[in-house]
Amino acid sequence: MSEALHFAEHRLQETALLIMAGVYAVRLIWLMRFKAGKERQAPTGLPGTTKGKGIIYSWANIFMPWSMESARKHVLMWFQFGIFHMGVTAAIALSVIIPYAPEVLEITLITTIFQVVIVAAFIVGIMRIIRRISIPVLRAISSPDDYFSLILLTVWFFFAAFSVPNRWQEGETFLLTYFWLTAFFLVYVPFSKISHYLYYPFTRYYLGKTMGFRGVFPLRGTRRG
Amino acid sequence: MTNKKRSHQAEVLIEGMAEKLNRQIVGSLVACVHCGNCTRSCHYVLTNPDDPTFAPAYKADRIRKIFKRHFDWTGRVFPWWVGAKSIFTVEELEELKDIVFGKCTNCRRCSINCPMGVDYATFNRMMRGLLVSVGIMPEGVAVVSKDQWEIGNQMGVLPEDYIDTIEWMSEEMQSELDDPTAVIPIDKMDADIVYTINPREVKYDPRTISDAGKIFHLAGENWTMPSEGWDMTNFGLFSGDDALGGAVAGRVYEKAKELRAKKIVISECGHGYRSTRCEGPNWAGMDVEIPMESSVITMLRYVREGRIKVDKTRNTKSYTFHDSCNNARSCGLFEEPRELLNLVVTDFREMYPNRSENYCCTGGGGAMSMSEYTPLRLKSAKIKADQLRETGAEVVVTSCHNCVDGLTDLIKHYKLGMEVTQLVNMESEVNKGSGFNVSIPRRSIALSSNDFK
Amino acid sequence: MPDSVKINQSTIRLIKGDLTALDVEAFVFYARPDLALGSGFGNAISMRGGSTIKEELEKIGGIKSGEAVATAAGELKAGYIIHAAGPAFHEENIEGKLLITMENALKCAEEKGIKQLAFPPMGAGFFAVPLPVCAKVMIESIKRYLSGDTGIKEVIICAADNRDYKSFAVELAAID
């Protein structure tokens, strides 16, 4: 293994992770400095609905496509979402597995699973880019960061898919590019929309708390009469 | 950096934003990923599919841009990259006004359909309030807000007219029930219930007051209506003016306290229920000890307890129920009205979607008072018209005065030929004293609302 | 807390009530420069006072911000209405402008020989003048005016609700 690849797999990743953690911490402190809302009134709604249940429901909501009309009516989109995020998880896991537990990738089944998931995510990424460019409403709401983040992840999937077997002996180009992209991704995340996963627990927590307290969550949506 | 000079109003708006931002709103402002899921839940988008400016994410971004430019460092450092942009001129503020007042009814349907939990309606209301604070608002909002601030109710009903109407309805009630004791008490001390209403009832629909009075009387209730602090509606919810919201709600709570009432009952009104029951204590900064409930829950309790008798065979038309956004999506009130309706009609047909997923009547968020947006409102009502038509029902029942007006308007516009009524009118009609007691179904959810505790 | 304070030969009195229904010599209406009555108190003036007030205002046409003008009060219990156009919606220098408006409203009443004058919380509420600012400036201005040579014997501050009342009660109590 070249020194360049060793550096990219270790020192570069560690530095990028530290930067990301630092910026995240600043971001969280910033968010927590805003005052929290308070509900003074007595709770409303059915007794099965409480703040706590609302929060848990809100967090779990994304895993229950039937619970949200926008997902229920567009299940395919929901599956795309699932695949894309599984791809992200797999590609991030890869950046830890390769330097610290490369033996895991000697198991063919595991490398196959990783490659299938990441390639599927890559295909979804391409579909998402086309969708974002071709649908007027998505074009209207997209900032340069929206396009860049999506393209960045899709390209990253591409190199990750080829890096899964970890065959540096056969050439380091894909691995090097993958690790440099991972490092860039880690540093760029807090500055971009990709940081949404940092906010996700907060936004869903507050929505769940409010809606749970008011008897709206767990949602008793459309029911047959 | 632009050299554009910022107007004083824009300066005040940005300063005001700093005060209004809380963790929940900031979370909603930073978390949007522009996935576009919200577009499929908004009645404006569904009826204007070719215009992307109706998308909740697009509308939200008009506010988000300002937030990012002034409060989020990514927007301060790389404004172009993250779509951050400040606001400068009065013309820009006027454009923003047309978005937050004219293109959204704050129905919260996109909020429950957002995978990220972005509560657009909440910060849309915040922006309405900021614009109102600098005097930029639709004329109708100004008229109604001023009435509610200065006269004490949002339709400018003068105290003498209110009292006259109550006395008139009291006489009507006496004559209809042929009972001299059937009166509407005003400012009675130590009543179990103080009944608060919507000024629309005084001005346009006093029958709902006497219908409610009949129900209270027949139930043997110890009740009263207040001489002031009687308007449970609150334009602060629509205008985003928390000070108005707090002042109006505070008048209701303080009067009930002064009368030593044991409970405040709120007549059927979605925004009134939400404002008085759910938001008012927060706006007013008051911990209200007197319990509050919707009259729907009160009426349902009377039927369940056998205090009033109902004869559903009197209502033989076909009925459907429209959930008010404020009741269903912001206060969890959707099972009780259905249960009550099923007790008083023989043919109930559910509309789809329903409960918390129901579409707005399209006249919500104060839209009925903003005549400049009426053509757009009615065009965007098509989705609601289709939904109503599909039920095949002759009558649409709702628990909201505003929805009554919104639905009536669209039914006329789309020539649906449906009637619109409220539960209080239905129930009053069926308990006219036939003496026939309908058996009360007790489902697992029966009597289980937090309001029954 | 006291609900009235004596300044020289005059009194400042705080009440809770219905401004346009007061049986007083005159009351102040927080007007717009175009003198349109509009909704709120304007609506009450139109409804209770009849059309003559509007007609008189139309003849006057308009006033500048900070100015005040008197009209008869039609069928209202009051004899006069002082229409005073004050600052609105967080415009610049609210305190200074409100002080000028108050002074002009009082002077206008003085010129008419009015001895009893009722004020609403000037600009608070719809016009978004912060209530504490409104109470402070109004009490300060009335106190200063009544300390001088004046024929006005009583100034009433008519609060619409407890929220208004409490803010003014605090300021009134602070008068030495």
Poorly predicted ranges of chain A:
none
The string of secondary-structure elements of chain A, in order, is HHHHHHHHHH
* Number of distinct helices of chain A: 10
CATH class (first level) name of the largest domain in chain B: Alpha Beta
CATH architecture of the largest domain in chain B: 3-Layer(aba) Sandwich
Strand fraction band of chain A?
under 5%
- The side-by-side strand order for the widest beta sheet of chain B comes to 2-1-3-4
Query: What quaternary form is this?
Result: heterotrimer
Q: Report how far the terminal alpha carbons of chain A are from each other.
A: 67 Å
CA gyration radius of chain B, whole angstroms: 23 Å
Instruction: Give the helix level of chain A as a range of percent.
Output: 55-70%
**Count of all domains of chain A:** 1
Query: What is the β-strand count of chain B?
Result: 8
- Spans of chain B of at least 5 consecutive residues whose pLDDT stays below 50 are 433-453
Largest sheet properties of chain B: 4 strands, parallel
How many structural domains are formed by the residues of chain B? Answer: 3
| Outline of chain B | globular
For the sheet with most strands of chain A, the description reads: none
- Overall mean pLDDT of chain A stands at 94
Key terms for this structure?
heterotrimer; B: 453 residues; alpha/beta; Fumarate Reductase Iron-sulfur Protein, Chain B, domain 2; Rossmann fold; 4-stranded parallel sheet; 23 helices; disordered C terminus; C: 176 residues; Leucine Aminopeptidase, subunit E, domain 1; 7-stranded mixed sheet; 5 helices; 22% strand; globular
